[in-house]
Write a structure and sequence with these properties.
Layout: H1 2-28, H2 36-45, H3 51-86, H4 98-117, H5 126-153, H6 157-180, H7 184-194, H8 203-219, H9 224-230, H10 234-239, H11 244-266, H12 272-284, H13 289-311, H14 322-347
Helix pairs in contact: 1-13, 2-3, 3-8, 3-11, 3-12, 3-13, 4-5, 4-6, 4-7, 4-11, 5-6, 5-11, 8-11, 12-13, 12-14, 13-14
């Protein structure tokens, strides 16, 4: 037991140090290298600094870093909650169709409404951005409310999972129809939104986003006892006094909220929510979800920061779509974890 706690403490400490290191790299590296002394002066001491450096840090790199950290943390935790609830290693934050509902809301504004009104919402500047975020939140909230209602009334983890997947397919079908009948420019704007980005928020909004993703991610540790029991099976958990319906409702609500917020502000970010929980379990070597949630939060934030860094590596003229980077990192991680587990099982 002491050996396990010692290992977990080391893993969490190393994950925290890695997170701090990646935060610094995200602020320092880019098309222009900015020294740490300048960053310290800009963020903390208030000394006279290079105005170009100040604009780059405060208007671009700091917001991107905060959004990357918050989004990665939220998706890592949401993915762990879903994988435990459904006991499915491939379950992720989007498995309940919440990301699809969010995408449908954006498609309605960008493709359907824009087509009827005769202009594109991207031409409206800040109001267009607000309309996209608002419609995304509404779409995600409606799907989440439907899933929570089904979870409360019908029950049955498998039923909730199947209905969530069907909602995802239905949303994708409607989006495809909207794409088919929309002008090329609107479809292009929608596709760009769907590629995901951590650079859509200004500093003030990025800080708000950080608060509404980081705090719920940490509060998810209060679900650890329920998750520990659910991991043993519904019948066993029920015999130990767990209210299965209530626990399922809270887990779906937490995961759905985190997924909805990230998708609304960043677009549908793939693979982080699937890969990070596997990494957290492999490194922690524990089934206690209190530590798994903390580790998934730290590793999720670190993974998103690494992806953001790779998406805008020095020497690149344009920033790469974040989903192309997350898939490039996430897919090998999942394959490696599965291969390593099979190897360990054979040795046992």
């Amino acid at each position: 037991m002491i050996h396990k706690l010692g290992r977990i403490s080391i893993v969490i400490t190393l994950a925290t140090l890695l997170l701090v290191f990646l935060v610094l790299l995200n602020l320092v590296l880019g098309s222009i290298h900015i020294p740490l002394s300048e960053i310290k002066a800009i963020l903390f001491t208030g000394e006279e600094v290079n105005r170009i450096y100040e604009n780059i840090i405060l208007k671009t790199r700091l917001p991107q870093t905060i959004v990357s950290l918050g989004a990665g943390m939220a998706l890592g935790v949401a993915g762990l909650l879903m994988q435990t609830l459904f006991r499915n290693p491939l379950a992720g934050p989007s498995v309940l169709g919440i990301s699809s509902g969010s995408s449908l809301g954006v498609a309605f504004v960008m493709l359907f409404t824009g087509n009827i009104l005769g202009f594109t919402f991207t031409s409206l500047g800040a109001w267009g951005d607000f309309a996209v975020v608002f419609s995304s939140l509404i779409g995600a909230a409606l799907v989440l409310a439907l899933i929570l209602f089904i979870s409360h009334r019908i029950g049955g983890t498998l039923s909730v999972l199947i209905i969530g997947v069907m909602i995802g397919y239905l949303s994708s079908s409607l989006v495809s129809l909207l794409k088919f009948y929309s002008p090329e420019e609107d479809v292009y704007n929608y596709v760009i939104w769907g590629l995901g980005s951590f650079s859509r928020l200004a500093t003030e909004r990025a800080m708000m986003f950080g608060l509404i993703t980081v705090i719920p991610s940490i509060l998810a540790t209060f679900l650890s006892k329920s998750l520990n029991l659910l991991a043993l099976g519904d019948r066993y958990a029920s015999n130990l006094g767990l209210n299965i319906k209530r626990a399922r409702f809270l887990i779906i609500a937490f995961s759905g909220f985190l997924t909805a917020i990230v998708t609304s502000f960043c677009g549908p970010i793939i693979f982080i929510g699937v890969a990070v929980p596997h990494l957290a379990k492999l490194l922690s070597k524990t089934s206690n979800h209190f530590y798994l949630i903390l580790n998934a939060a730290l590793l999720g934030a670190a993974t998103a920061l690494l992806c953001n860094l790779l998406a805008r590596m020095p020497g690149m003229e344009q920033e790469m779509p974040i989903n192309s980077v997350t898939a490039f990192i996430g897919a090998p991680v999942v394959i490696w974890v599965i291969w390593k587990r099979r190897k360990e099982n054979r040795l046992e």
